């Protein structure tokens, strides 16, 4: 399955938005066990979005610095 570039670029930010939303919902929803579960899940999703953004940024910086030779596995 191939995603369009705009969807591909927006996914990490969507993940971060969902994570922040889950964290906010956990503070509003005061059921002890479920609130902790939603907060933990929101934190994991938020960190996953941040990791994707940073890894993509680092890859693009390295590719710009080293050019096409960076992609070759020889």
> Helicity, in percent?
over 70%
Sheet/helix structural class: mainly alpha
Radius of gyration: 17 Å
Tell me the number of strands.
0
Strand content: under 5%
Which properties best describe this structure?
mainly alpha
SSE layout:
Layout: H1 5-28, H2 32-66
Word description of this protein:
The structure is a single chain. By secondary structure, the chain is an all-alpha fold. The protein has a domain at 16-65. Helices cover 80% and strands 0% of the residues. The longest helix has 35 residues, at 32-66. The model has no long low-confidence stretch (mean pLDDT 89).
Provide a quick synopsis of the model.
The protein has 74 residues and is mainly alpha-helical. The protein contains two helices and no strands.
């Amino acid at each position: 399955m191939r995603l369009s570039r705009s969807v591909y670029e927006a996914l990490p930010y969507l993940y971060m938005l969902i994570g922040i939303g889950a964290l906010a919902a956990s503070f509003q929803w005061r059921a002890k066990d479920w609130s902790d579960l939603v907060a933990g899940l929101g934190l994991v999703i938020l960190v996953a979005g941040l990791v994707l953004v940073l890894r993509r940024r680092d890859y693009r910086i390295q590719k710009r610095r080293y050019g096409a030779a960076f992609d070759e596995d020889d």
